[in-house]
Amino acid sequence: MNSEHSDEHLETLLGDILEVYGYDFTGYSRASLKRRIVRLYQLDHFVSFAEYRYKIRTEPGYFKRFLEEVTINVTEMFRDPSFYKTLRTEILPKLGTYPFIRVWVAGCSTGEEAYSIAIFLKELNLLHKSLIYATDINSAVLENAAQAMIPLSKIKLYTENYIAAGGSEQFSDYYAANYSLGKLKDELKSKIIFSTHNLVTDNSFNEFQLILCRNVIIYFDRPLQNTVFELFDNSLEKRGYLALGTKETLDFSSISKNYERLKGEKIWRKIH
After folding, report:
1. 193 and 162 share one domain
2. What is the torsional sign of CA 82, 87, 88, 94?
3. For residue 240, is it within any domain?
4. Do 115 and 41 fall into the same domain?
5. Would you call 251 exposed, middle or buried from its count of C-beta atoms within 10 A (0-12, 13-18, 19+)?
6. Are 101 and 126 in contact, with CB atoms under 8 Å apart?
7. What is the per-residue pLDDT across 155-165, written as a single tens digit (0 to 9) for each?
8. What is the mean predicted confidence (pLDDT) over 256-265?
9. In the chain, which residue ranges form alpha helices assigned H by DSSP?
10. Does residue 76 form part of some domain?
11. Same domain, 42 and 97
12. Would you say 113 and 158 are in contact if contact means Cβ atoms under 8 Å apart?
């Protein structure tokens, strides 16, 4: 894929994927997509774009690999501790007044965010009446997430994040070490439902009091961001909360008038 034709090739490929598999990447940020697609082309040593295109079009197994490479989202437990501190001290206690708490983690990747929320719900004695729906377009990362395993090499970082976010117990209480991996407690996993969901083409599937979609829509262009925000708006109860990533905003979106932002973090409350 030489740079001279790569934009043209990119559009051809996106058209193929929509036609053959029904995945619509046409609203994704081109720079990010192009970087990941070219990286896979080089990684798998293709000699021509035609060969790459043919393999993606005709081999569902290879398309699965393509999807994994293109949609992977780097994540960690209690990422941005100040955000989790706000969640723990301001938002989850308010949700505790509801008879049942439903949380949607959209674009959950390998599940670190969903497990982080489950830990704080447990510490606030709310996990027993909560359900976390964790969704992603990528079925391979969901399989990883459902195993509830974390690499021991990341435990130091996760422990530091947990403490900075206001964790009240020992982080080591939440996992059992097993060789190079830590297995998270079954109690956490039992309150999380992992399932595939495509933010671009799928509809709302429940009503939630809290939706998190952090560092996902940054890859979407403005019209697609609006589509996704409308999906969230249709899925959020009145007075519910929507949390985005540090570089993302509801400002200038078609639903912004229905929301007010909390001070300090990228969290909005639905007021209309």
Report:
1. yes
2. positive
3. yes
4. no
5. exposed
6. yes
7. 999 999 999 99
8. 95
9. 6-21, 30-43, 49-58, 60-71, 81-86, 92-95, 112-123, 139-146, 155-164, 186-189, 222-235
10. no
11. no
12. no
